[in-house]
Every structure is written in structure tokens, then in C-alpha cells.
Design a protein that fits this description.
The chain is mostly beta strands. Helices cover 6% and strands 52% of the residues. The chain contains seven helices and 47 strands. The relative contact order is 0.11.
Length: 806
């Protein structure tokens, strides 16, 4: 976005409209070419007028300046063919109450038509604007290089400027993911404050600790729950992810069954009207190979049918003995623009592969055991998984102000394999293990999700409202066979391991359990965002939840009767300056769906309350954004791993987490981008519970955590297109559990380097890239499941890639 200077010589409504005016300049596309008659080729579908104008500026090599308020809630016409800029803008505007005016320097401005000016504003002078600096990119543009995006939808389910949102909402855009060569979600989340790796299981599955609390639920894909049933074997591949949005703190109002520490929402790549194709080959240490494909464009001549296809194939060994993984991920999507007001999307994800379960190493005393980094203490057996997701979502705009949308997803999960993990020391060097055989048929673990939203824009008494009324329903059922093996025959010497192999590892099962779990969750919510005088914005809403769960464990049925809950939240933002916002908010959380322990017991529902206050800033022509937030979060019936029985869970009385978080990202100077974070969490402790646990710090929550990644791209000269940079990720010490026998993971810092070079080859762009992670080969332990399952950090690794785009 660019700076603007405003001049207004009238009073009343005109002054308020001028104060609200926001300058929008469309980037001159590097790939558009006009002919001698001044015509350009345009491919712009009917859509929101603001979005269409961005595409117009890029495809037409045309500078465009206007106050975005005057185009809010307006739709564009479709534009396909060769036109001059004047012809094209008239077609896009259609019947909109706006007119285009060309300035002396060739830029185009938008103004209300004369009749609209007279009827709505009275006689006045329109604000003058002056463009300074770099223009704004479309966030869905595959070539978008931005590290900072001004809007996000996860916090409100509406496209809201971050500066007007009374919560800490962080966005990790596609360019950051590409620069760090991120493959797994935690690669991106490393650069968000207050979020730390958890679970200690390598590639088997991923979870994270957010504001002190573990995220066994709280991940979403385009606003729909993902993963489900606490975790997905194999984690998630980022091949189809456009950006990662992180909402800190309780989010029950919009998402229901979330962890109060925060929600991570993976926004997927959508079909585009302009064709784009990308093929990338990555190769790295320990025989890592990953191939990705991204293709999008129109299916029909009138651009009403669009498609997007993403594919990723990965094969990798590990620095850990016997550990390897392989996966195939396919994600096609089709968009049908039925009319300018009606759109429907059909999507599919297929994810399959195998991975060797690696829980890590145990602690000896209060420190991780002194073992070689490659020492593996499980059984080297592949664990296979398969996931199918089928979805459909549609929206219809009744008029410029009211829109109805519906989303339906169903997922089928299956897995079959063996895991083994350390359960505790038998003597000074021998540890007990158990093998868990878990078989699940995809047809026996279905998950269904429905959500309906009505969004409206209207004014009352001079106040501008954005109203959201919605409801959702979630259902899951799981059938699992659990088989445990223990005893002297399954002990292993950690200093001289001897592996049993299959079928000896299974032996004679000590127990053979049948577990069935069913959960139903229904919610209704109402939210209103109100623009108030004096640059104030308010958000208020509440949610009603009704949930029930049941388990059948070896024929014995346990039920939690239906539980109802009302969760409010609200917040206020004061944008004291265009560059500075001050906000405060209060939120509540309710999580009733419970997960069973080994015995099939259902835990108590979790509730939480949070106060949050903070500052937000946008600098350098709105290309840089920063958030400083203080929070105080209290949670009841906290679910924690049982320190005395691996695989089981307990509910403790109450825990509190409070601290300060700083996030910055964006372009500081032309070509210089940074993303960084810092979190200070002095309090993350049990406040009510067993006497031996009160005051003990929660697992996996360092007191200090910080990250920084910075890149610089040469803007001119022979090496234009060369980019280089690097960063650091640092964590202070953390504990493995709240028991008196807890172990301490030492603090650490890892240094990473990056370089890339992009150049034109005909009509294509070829990019080569090289990353070095953990440059100093630091030995560290990033996370743990408990004192017997400590994850070993990855040593120095190298990753290169070659990508061609056209």
C-alpha cells in the first residue's frame, strides 16, 4: 500500500469520507504486454470490485488510485479480451455508482458519479491523493513476494484488516514458506510468537503448544476442522497452502471445539482465471526428495469454470537409525462461477504414505540421556496411513450487502501399523517398552462437518455494521483395535540396543482392546463488527454449544450426557493514528469433546477465559506490520499426559498462562524483508490441583522464545533476482511434564542460511534455491511427550531446489 496526502475543504460527511479514504495502487505486471494501439489483454472474472481492480492494474500496466470505502460491497463485471485501459475500466465498473477519471500523469482515479456526490455528500471537493513508493500485490497472486498481508479472515470469518481486529492474528504468507522451504506446519509456526513444537514424534504426527497449552485440537483448513480425532498420522503437507493464519487465544465463538491457546488455519490455494503452472524439485540431506506441482487456470472459454491442482510426493530417510517416511499428497479443486453473485467449489484431498514411529529418547535423572543423535529405541516398522477428504462449499450474494455461504466436508481416516515407545527404566541402562498395534479401517473412522454463515453489511444511526450469523455441526466416530505388549521380553538396552523385529515385537499381547468413540457437536453463533465514531471499532458476539460424547471400551459403554454452554467474546480497537491501533478484548472457550485414555475414560470438558491487550502498527507504506500483545489465559480441567501411565491422560483442576508476545513482518526497505517473533511467558503453571503439582510449569513452554528470518533481494544490476539471507530460532529451557520427576530440556539456538536466484527463461521464471538449517550443528531437544519421549533435534542439513514457473 502507498502513502497518501488528503486535502478536504468541506465539512460534514465529506470530512468523514476523506478521513476514511485508503489509497490502493495496483502493481504493474511484469508479464503484461500492450500493443501499439495501447490495448492490453485482460482475463478478469466477475468478482468483488476491489479484487477486480487489483487484477486490472496488474494486467493493464495501469496505476490506479482510489479510496477503498467507495468500492466496498460492489461487484465487477467480467472482462475478457483486448481493450484500452479506458475501455476496460468502464466494463469493470458496469452499473456501479462510480466513474473513472484519468489524471494528468496517466493514473486513473475513481470517484462517485456526479449524482451520487450530490445526493450523498453534498457539494465538496474530493480528496487529492499522491502515490509514494511501491504498490500492493494481490494476496492470491502466485508471484506475490510480500512477507506481510494487511487482512485476515480467521479471527472474524470476514475479510477484516488486521489493524481493526481486537486480537493477535498472525499471517505467515506463501513467500515465507517458500524461502524457508517449509514442508511441515511447524516449519512455518516456528516464526509465530508463543507457539512451540510439541509431542516429540518426528514425522509421525505434529502438534504444538500455544500460549502454554497443547494443541491436540485447534487446526483448521479453510475454517473447517483439520486435523480431527486429535491428530493426523503423518502430519500435514504444505503443498496446497496459500498462507497460514494464526489466531492467538480462545476462538470458541467461531470454531467451537478449539484449544484455548489458539487456532491455526491453513488457507488453501484457490483456482485462478489467469493460467499459472509450477514444477519444483527439492533435494536434501538424508536422501530427502520432494516433488511438487501447482497448476491453475480456466476450464471453459468464458472462465466460469476454473481449476487448481496441487501434488506433492516426498521420500526421505532420517538422521535417526531405521527411520524413514514416504507420502503422496494430491489436492484438486474446481470452481464454478454460476453467476456474478453465485459461486460453488468442489475439492478433494488424498493423502497416503508411511512413517516409522520415533518417540525419541528417555531422560536419565533430570536431563536427556547422553546418547548418539542417531540412536533409535523403537521397532523399525512402517506405520501406514491414508486420508481422503471430499468437500463442497458455495456462496450466494443476494445483493451487494448480504451473502449466504455453506461448507460441507467429509473425511475418512485409516491407519495400520506398529508403534513402540519407552515407558520407563527397568535398571540403570535397560528400559521397558511397549508395542502398540493400532488398526483402523477408513470406512470405520468417518468425520463430517457442516457450517452455514449469513454475512450482512448495513448502517444504523450512522454506524457501519458487519453482521455474522452462523451455525456448524461436527460428527466423528472411531473404531480402533489396541494391542499392547509388555514384559521382560520387550526391554531394550539404550546403550546397546537389540531389535526384536516383527512378529517377535508383538509377541503375545498383554491386552487386546476394542475402542469405539463417537462425538457430536452443534453450535450457533452471532457476531457484530461495528465502526464507531472517533476511529473506534467494536466486535461483540456469543456462541451456544451443545455437545455429547460416548465410548465403548471392550463392550463397556461410557457416556457424557449432552452439555450446553454459552461463550461470549468482545473487543474494542482504537486506531489512534493510521499507523497505530490500540486494542483490548475478552474471550471464553469451551471444549466438551473428550479423548479417551488407555482405559477408555472420558475426561471432563475444558473451559477457559482470556484477557488480552495490545498495540498494532503498520509502517513503510503499510508494507510492514507489528503486534505487541499481553495476555492472561486461565483454563479449567486441563488435559495432560499421565506421568505414571504412558498413553493415558488426566484432567487437573486449573492452570494459568500469561505473558507478552511480539510479532513483526514485512518489507523494511525495497527488497529487504523480515519476519520475527519474541514471547516472554513467565507464568504457565498449575494453579489448582494436586498439591504436588501446584506451581509446576507446564510441559514444553520455555520462558523465552524468539525467531528471526530476513532476506534481501538485489533490485538492479547484473545480479538482479539474487536473494540471500538467514535467521535464528532460539528457545530457553523447558520441562517435560508437571511431575516431581520432570526432566529439563536445555535452551538452544539454531542458525539458518538461505540464498536463491531467479531469472527469465523465455516466458518462464526459473528459480534455484539453497538452504542450510542448523548451520552450527547444534545438538538440541525441541520438544517432548513426557520424560520418556524426548525429541532429538535435527543436525545440520542442506536443502536445494529448482522451480520453474510460467
Amino acid at each position: 500500500m502507498s502513502n497518501a496526502k488528503y486535502c478536504n475543504h468541506s465539512a460534514g460527511k465529506g470530512r468523514r469520507h476523506a478521513a476514511k479514504a485508503v489509497l490502493l495502487a495496483a502493481l504493474i505486471s511484469q508479464t503484461a504486454h500492450g500493443d501499439a494501439a495501447g490495448k492490453h489483454h485482460f482475463d478478469i472474472p466477475a468478482q468483488s470490485l476491489n479484487q477486480a481492480l487489483l487484477m486490472f492494474g496488474r494486467q493493464g500496466q495501469q496505476q490506479l488510485m482510489y479510496g477503498t470505502d467507495i468500492a466496498d460491497n460492489l461487484r465487477s463485471g467480467a472482462l475478457h479480451g483486448d481493450y484500452t485501459a479506458d475501455e476496460a475500466i468502464r466494463i469493470l465498473l458496469g452499473d456501479a455508482p462510480l466513474q473513472a477519471v484519468t489524471t494528468g500523469d496517466g493514473a486513473i482515479t475513481l470517484q462517485p458519479r456526479a449524482a451520487e456526490l450530490h445526493n450523498n455528500l453534498g457539494p465538496q471537493t474530493m480528496p487529492a491523493v499522491q502515490v509514494v513508493g511501491k504498490a500492493t500485490y494481490d494476496s492470491t497472486d502466485p508471484y506475490n513476494p510480500d512477507y506481510s498481508l494487511p487482512n485476515a479472515s480467521t479471527a472474524t470469518k470476514t475479510d477484516t484488516p488486521i489493524m481493526e481486529t481486537p486480537y493477535s492474528i498472525q499471517v505467515v504468507p506463501k513467500q515465507v514458506i517458500e524461502d524457508i522451504q517449509g514442508i511441515r506446519p511447524n516449519d512455518a509456526l516456528d516464526y509465530v510468537s508463543g507457539i512451540y513444537r510439541s509431542s516429540g514424534s518426528g514425522d509421525f504426527f505434529e502438534s504444538s503448544t500455544r500460549r502454554g497449552f497443547n494443541s491436540l485440537s485447534g487446526d483448521y483448513r479453510d475454517g473447517a476442522p483439520f486435523p480431527v480425532a486429535d491428530y493426523i498420522i503423518g502430519g500435514r503437507d504444505l503443498a496446497s497452502t496459500e498462507r497460514v493464519e494464526v489466531l492467538k487465544g480462545p476462538a470458541s465463538l467461531l470454531y467451537g471445539m478449539t484449544n484455548p491457546g489458539g487456532v491455526v488455519n491453513y488457507i488453501t490455494k484457490k483456482p485462478l482465471a489467469t493460467p499459472y503452472y509450477s514444477l519444483q524439485q527439492q533435494f536434501g540431506s538424508y536422501d530427502l526428495y520432494r516433488t511438487t506441482v501447482d497448476a491453475t487456470g480456466p476450464i471453459s472459454d468464458d472462465k466460469s469454470l476454473l481449476y487448481r491442482f496441487n501434488l506433492a510426493y516426498k521420500s526421505a530417510d532420517s538422521f535417526r537409525d531405521f527411520v524413514n517416511s514416504e507420502r503422496t499428497f494430491i489436492a484438486p479443486m474446481v470452481t464454478w462461477n454460476i453467476s456474478p453473485r453465485t459461486q460453488i467449489n468442489f475439492e478433494l484431498e488424498y493423502d497416503t504414505g508411511h512413517v516409522v514411529f520415533d518417540r525419541g529418547i528417555p531422560a536419565i535423572g533430570n536431563r536427556p540421556a547422553n546418547l548418539p543423535q542417531n540412536r533409535f529405541l523403537g521397532e523399525p516398522v512402517n506405520y501406514e496411513y491414508e486420508r481422503v477428504m471430499v468437500g463442497m462449499n458455495w456462496s450466494h450474494a443476494f445483493n451487494d450487502n448480504w451473502t449466504l455461504s455453506h461448507r460441507f466436508n467429509m473425511q475418512f481416516l485409516g491407519q495400520n501399523g506398529v508403534t513402540s515407545a519407552v515407558t520407563g527404566f527397568f535398571d540403570n541402562q535397560t528400559v521397558n517398552r511397549f508395542g502398540l498395534y493400532q488398526s483402523q479401517n477408513p470406512g470405520n473412522q468417518p468425520v463430517y462437518y457442516n457450517s452455514v454463515n449469513l454475512t450482512g453489511h448495513f448502517n444504523t444511526a450512522g454506524l457501519k455494521h458487519t453482521l455474522l450469523l452462523g451455525g456448524d455441526h461436527y460428527h466423528t466416530s472411531v473404531d480402533t483395535i489396541q494391542r499392547f505388549v509388555s514384559g521382560p521380553s520387550n526391554r531394550i538396552n539404550i546403550f546397546n540396543p537389540q531389535y526384536l523385529g516383527l512378529p517377535a515385537a508383538l509377541g503375545n499381547p498383554a491386552t487386546n482392546n476394542q475402542l469405539s468413540l463417537a462425538s457430536d457437536w452443534f453450535g450457533l453463533y452471532l457476531q457484530d463488527q461495528i465502526k464507531l465514531p472517533f476511529d473506534l471499532s467494536m466486535l461483540a458476539g456469543f456462541r451456544y454449544d451443545s455437545a455429547e460424547s460416548s465410548t465403548v471400551f471392550n463392550g463397556s459403554r461410557s457416556e457424557i450426557p449432552r452439555q450446553d454452554n454459552l461463550s461470549p467474546r468482545g473487543g474494542v480497537v482504537w486506531q489512534a493514528l493510521p499507523e497505530l491501533s490500540v486494542y483490548g478484548s475478552y474471550s471464553e472457550n469451551f471444549t466438551s469433546v473428550s479423548s479417551p485414555g488407555i482405559g477408555g475414560n472420558l475426561l471432563q470438558p475444558e473451559t477457559a477465559q482470556q484477557w488480552e491487550f495490545g498495540l498494532k502498527t503498520e509502517l513503510f507504506d503499510k508494507r510492514f506490520i507489528g503486534t505487541l500483545a499481553w495476555f492472561d489465559l486461565t483454563k479449567q480441567n486441563v488435559r495432560i499426559p499421565d506421568p505414571h501411565l504412558s498413553g493415558n491422560f488426566l484432567s487437573i483442576g486449573e492452570a494459568n498462562s500469561a505473558g507478552l508476545e511480539l510479532d513483526i513482518k514485512g518489507e523494511v526497505l525495497p527488497g529487504w524483508n523480515i519476519i520475527g517473533s519474541y514471547a516472554y511467558t513467565p507464568d504457565a503453571t498449575v494453579t489448582v490441583g494436586r498439591e504436588s503439582e501446584i506451581g509446576r510449569r507446564f510441559r514444553g513452554v520455555p520462558r523465552h522464545g524468539a525467531s528471526l528470518f530476513s532476506t534481501y533481494e538485489l533490485q538492479s544490476g547484473l545480479l538482479q533476482g539474487f536473494k540471500f539471507g538467514g535467521g535464528v530460532i532460539t528457545r530457553s529451557s523447558q520441562t517435560t511434564d508437571i511431575a516431581a520427576t520432570t526432566a529439563v530440556l536445555p535452551g538452544y539456538a539454531t542458525v539458518n542460511l538461505f540464498s536463491s536466484y531467479a531469472w527469465k527463461v523465455g516466458g518462464s521464471t526459473l528459480t534455484t534455491q539453497f538452504n542450510v538449517n542448523n548451520l552450527l550443528d547444534k545438538e538440541y531437544f525441541p520438544s517432548s511427550f513426557n520424560r520418556n519421549g524426548i525429541e532429538v533435534g535435527v543436525p545440520r542439513t542442506f536443502m536445494g531446489s529448482v522451480r520453474i514457473e510460467y
